[in-house]
Amino acid sequence: MDPFMGSGTTAIEAVRYANSVHGVEVDPYARLIASVATQKYSEDEIGKISFLVSEIGRAFEHQSLYDDLKPRLANIEYWFGDENFSDLLKLKSAIFELTDEGKVREFLLAAFGDIIRACSKAERQSLKPYISKKYEKKPKRVLDEFLRIASKYIDAVSESQKHKSDGIVWEGFDATNFDVSTSVDLAITSPPYINAMDYTRCIKLESAWIGTADDDAIKTVRNAQLGERVRRNREVREDFVYSISRQHLGELETIDEARFKTAVVFFDDMRRNMEAVFRALRPGGFYYIIIGNSRIRGVDVPTHQVIAEIAGQLGYKWDKYFLYRIRDHRTSIPRGDRGGKIEFEHALGLMKP
Ligand SMILES: C[S@@+](CC[C@H](N)C(=O)[O-])C[C@H]1O[C@@H](n2cnc3c(N)ncnc32)[C@H](O)[C@@H]1O
């Protein structure tokens, strides 16, 4: 189980070996990618998908546009040239015309979502959509890019019949409050960071196009993100989470009370998450949490330490602990001056006795 599933990195490995794979994730676009990447596709389904992809290519020029499929996000046109905007709508119209709700449509929508950034004017390098004024980017052509990505996806699922389990059993949307249908042996996750860059905004163009997001939906998902500043207004009991946080980052409370509060709420949310995972685990089961530290207003926040102490209070025992220096920062989330560069990742191996 991964209770912060994201786009499914852990699940993609897990479906090969585990009897069942469980997940919790609040972001609908991430859920779509994770589902498509872990489901089993039969030969028939793969054949049907391949046929539909070539059909889309063949009839693209004459495809009609459905206005009600346009993304409902303010200023979305800003991010695209006219031709690509219209071609994206054409492609989405074709997908909805040719498929019913279900696996095949999900597959095509995931591939569609994957081409959005490349076909937009937004930089590839920055995670958050951003249009450079200095260097003009040449957006990819919609149909070509779709055909390329779809064929990559088809290759990727061609072996999925061999997997031990079929897709993810979704156990809920909120990692701080869920119950599972069956007890699990192992949970592993990398939770969000305090004050991290806002994931929801990073994927807003994709979410808007695949139809899971308008301005309101994006706000709802953002407000659910652990570590988001907006959550600091949540009431937190003055209990051990508070005193452990204060012990490790008391200095921050004097420098910047609001950011201290954001951190406390983050740790309180992690407490709830660890409680939910504790309930989900069978006795003797493990919870591995991979997390980096943060620096907030010049104060080092030993996130792993605080989480470890909270886990101890909840009844977890140690299995293992290790850390490693992050060698490749290309895939890590840039956080400007907000969180500091993450140098180490810590793996906390907890066990439910
Ligand atoms: C660090 S990412 C996980 C990355 C994942 N390992 C992957 O490979 O994609 C954290 C994920 O937690 C999700 N998340 C944040 N707050 C959440 C909450 N309260 N409930 C459920 N999911 C949440 C975010 O949407 C994000 O996808």
* Quaternary structure type: single chain
Bound molecules: S-adenosylmethionine
β-strand percent reads 5-15%
- The number of E-state strands comes to 8
Distance between the termini: 18 Å
Helical stretch tally: 12
The top level CATH class name of the largest domain: Alpha Beta
Structural domain count: 2
What is the succession of H and E elements?
HEHHHHHEEHHHHHEEEHEE
Gyration radius (Cα, Å) is: 22 Å
Quickly give the structural class: alpha/beta
Mean pLDDT: 92
Uncertain runs are none
> Strand order across the biggest sheet?
3-4-8-7
CATH architecture assignment of the largest domain: 3-Layer(aba) Sandwich
Q: Main beta sheet, described?
A: 4 strands, mixed
* Helix content, binned percent: 40-55%
Shape type: globular
CATH topology of the largest domain, which one?
Answer: Rossmann fold
